Amino acid sequence: MKVTIRKKRWNLRFVPFLGWFQEGGKRHRVSGACDGPDTYNKAIMIAKGQSEFSELDSLLHEMLHAGLWEIDEDIVHELATDMARVLTRLGWHKEVRST
Q1: What sign for the dihedral angle of Cα 30, 12, 61, 93?
Q2: 46 vs 36, 79, 94, CA distance in Å?
Q3: 35 DSSP assignment
Q4: Are 57 and 47 in contact (CB under 8 A)?
Q5: If you placed Cys at 34, which of 50, 62, 64, 89 could pair as Cys (CB 3.0 to 4.6 Å)?
Q6: What pLDDT sits at residue 98?
Q7: What is the arrangement of strands in the sheet containing 2-5, beginning at the earlier edge strand?
Q8: What pLDDT does 97 receive?
Q9: Is this prediction's pTM over 0.85?
Q10: Which residues contact 67 (CB under 8 A, 6 or more apart)?
Q11: Do the Cβ atoms of 56 and 48 come closer than 8 Å?
Q12: How far apart are CA 95 and CA 59, in angstroms?
């Protein structure tokens, strides 16, 4: 699906696997990734198989990167999780659509 963020278009894709990263001596699955705003045919990719909350958090996180590329990773992480928590408390849930 195509999405527009700050007047730029991204391909939004849900993918089976994005790789691994190391943090605190542990290996973690990458939950999302976003190409830079000036990349040709750029994409936001979200790993499938996450909990509903984690998927929302990852999607918000990557969309924040898309719209505010220059913002520090720690701030993006904190903002996305805070927004996901608020939306969840307000009753947001993923609607599963059949295609």
Answers
A1: negative
A2: 15, 17, 14
A3: -
A4: no
A5: 62
A6: 66
A7: 2-5, 8-15, 43-47, 32-34
A8: 73
A9: yes
A10: 5, 6
A11: no
A12: 15
Question: How does pLDDT run across 19-78, given as a tens digit for each residue?
Answer: 999 988 999 899 999 999 999 999 999 999 999 999 999 999 999 999 999 999 999 999
Under DSSP, the state recorded for 39 is S
CB-CB contact of 78 with 36 (8 Å): no
Tell me the β-bridge partners of 13: 45
- Please report the DSSP string for 39-93 in residue order: STT-EEEEETT--HHHHHHHHHHHHHHHH-TTS-HHHHHHHHHHHHHHHHHTT--
Q: Is the distance from CB of 83 to CB of 75 less than 8 angstroms? A: no
Residue 99, pLDDT > 70, answer no
